[in-house]
Amino acid sequence: MGLSYQCCIALGIWGEVNVIEHNAKIVIELDNVVKNFGQQRVLDGVSLQVRAGTTTVIVGASGQGKSVILKHMLGLLSPDTGRVTVFGHDLAKITKKQLSEIRSNFGVLFQNVALFDSMTVYDNVALPLRERTTTNEADIRCNVEEKLALMGLEDHGAKFPAQLSGGMKKRVGLARALVLNPKVVFFDEPTTGLDVSKSNEIYRLFFETQARLNYTAVIVSHDVPKIFKLSDYVALMAEGTLQSCMSPESFQLSDNPLIRSFVLETMGPIYSSEAEESLLYEAF
Amino acid sequence: MNLIALLGRETLHVVTYLGRFGMFLLTTLYCALLPPYKIASIMRQVHFIGAQSLFVIAFTGLFTGMVLSLQGYYTLAKFGSVGFLGAAVSLSLIRELGPVLGALMVIGRAGSAMCAEIGIMRNSEQIDALECMAIDPYKYLIVPKLVAGIIAMPLLTCVFDVVGIFGGFLVGVELFDVSAGAYFQGMYSSVGWNDIEMGLIKSLCFGLLLVWICAAKGFFLHLERGGGFGAEGVSRTTTSAVVLASVSVLVWDYLISAVLL
Fold it and tell me: Residue B47: phi, psi to the nearest 5?
């Protein structure tokens, strides 16, 4: 699994840190995916590989199609051309039942969490277990309480989503995403609308749960530069396509003009040498 | 050229719309046949569509029967046939007004709520969340509502008819001194099983129709022309669902009557 050393320091998490396995099995692959909404081309030949046990982060400005990529991986959208392969299955060529089987390995934390308003926190987390498994109610209770305790929500099971703060809703969403111990977890803007301390709390939970459950993570975010500390691979979504997928260190020093422009806009200048920095000042 | 393009676009829109609704119904009916059968969810929906509509159905039925009796009495009195009041009230209610007005009231009370609920779930990505959890939204959300609609509507229609006949009795017998025996004898001798059957068939069809249209409008909220997003989108779609379902009930009422009569 791919917890980076930097992120452990940043968030005060200590313990065994594994080396990224660059040759790990590919669990999700997008091959030249094109998607149009009406006359507008949102994805223009997107290709990406997500490897088992790693954390891949897709960054980019709002409205660039980051969430659309995620929806293709989840099988919620189909590409106009190109191919999306998950666990070796081309999503365009499988039955609804097979897609359902694949999705049972997924956990998703939606941008607006998508909790069921009319259900309690407990019932929200228990829903996948009740609907997808034949687990009895006692085991469901045990599992749900464990996940709620992991999220620090053990006293909030009887509350409704409307009675929770934004950060607590995110934690409930994460508990629900993890309740079936998924192989891949998708995070769509996991810290949107949260303050710094609540964002850090979500990231801490992400690290803890990934270390414990060893899942592959795909994160869509524009929480730069903090998100770099979480990632094994970073890809920039710009102009309808992914501008390469590389380690966060390489990303920050990339020569790609779009990546460089994005890094400058979001982080300020990062220079590989003093000479380069002085050149920038001369330009002004 | 623009006119031809417009005509083509509109035709495609209508065909797509009908196809989407048709596939929605077929998928729901197919899912309804597959186990597991969600009895608890169905009972909850029967309670929502049926039990919680009882008051409004009874109230509407009572006053419909009363006004039928009032109008019927003056009309029949002109021909000296007030003895047929019971038959006129009961036949009108059982064959026509019970199923139709009952369905219209349920559309207003439960159909609109159903459309808004599913529409909000679509807007807030709850339906996407279900799909991502490998939970079939048709099976989980739509099937219990459809089955409940088919169960609840005939029962509500029966309540409507009985209360309506009692309303007619109150006005005819208590207010205008029509003989109670004549009122019930007229009803007994003129209402046949085929009349009750027609009313029940209509109410079954309307139960399916109203859940189908209201649920599908909410389910495909994001595909509505002009965008169905936001509170305004939900309200606009709910309004159009109520209008479409109401008009469909009236159209189907004519078609079923034409076939069964």
Answer: -65, -45
Domain limits of chain B? Answer: 37-260
Pick the residue of A68, A108, A170 with the most B CBs within 10 A to test the interface with B by mutation.
A108
Spatial distance between the Cα atoms of A177 and A98, rounded to a whole number of angstroms: 20
Counting one residue from A and one from B, how many pairs have CB atoms under 8 Å apart? 51
- Residue A281 domain flag: no
* A235 and A161 assigned to the same domain: no
Is there a contact between B134 and A74 if contact means CB atoms under 8 Å apart?
Answer: no
Mean pLDDT, rounded, for B74-94: 93
Q: What is the structure's pLDDT at A282?
A: 61
How far, rounded to the nearest angstrom, does the alpha carbon of residue A25 sit from its chain's CA centroid? 18
What pLDDT is stored for residue A125 in this prediction?
A: 96
Residue A190: which of A179, A209, A203 has the closest Cα?
A203
Min CA distance, A114 vs chain B (Å)? 5
Q: Is pLDDT above 70 for B51?
A: yes
Nearest-CB residue to B128 (from A114, A127, A131): A114
Residue A268 falls within a domain, yes or no? no
Q: Are residues A227 and A95 in the same domain?
A: yes
Chain B closest-CA separation from residue A12 CA (Å): 32
Say whether pTM exceeds 0.95.
Answer: no
Which chain B residues have a beta carbon less than 8 Å from that of A74?
A: 128, 131-132
Please name the residue that has the structure tokens 């929770």: A164
The model's pLDDT over A194-215, given as tens digits with 9 standing for 90+, comes to 888 888 889 999 988 998 889 9
| Domain extent at residue A139 | 120-179
Question: Distance (Å, rounded) from C-alpha A116 to C-alpha B211?
Answer: 21
State the total domains in chain A: 2
**Which tens digits make up the pLDDT trace of A245-265?**
888 888 888 888 888 888 888
**Same domain assignment for residues A40 and A170:** no
Domain end point (choices A179, A201, A222): A179
- Using a 10 angstrom Cβ sphere, with 0-12 exposed, 13-18 middle and 19 or more buried, the burial of residue B126 is buried
Tell me: pLDDT of A271 over 80: no
Chain B partners of A111 at a C-beta cutoff of 8 Å?
Answer: 125
Chain B residues touching A132 at Cβ < 8 A: 133-135
Nearest of A115, A96, A92, A114 to residue A104 by alpha carbon: A96
Report ipTM (2 d.p.).
0.80
pLDDT in tens, A110-166: 988 999 999 999 999 999 999 988 889 999 999 999 999 999 999 999 999 999 999
Pick the residue of A131, A132, A133, A183 with the most B CBs within 10 A to test the interface with B by mutation: A131
- Say if the Cβ atoms of A114 and B135 lie within 8 Å: no
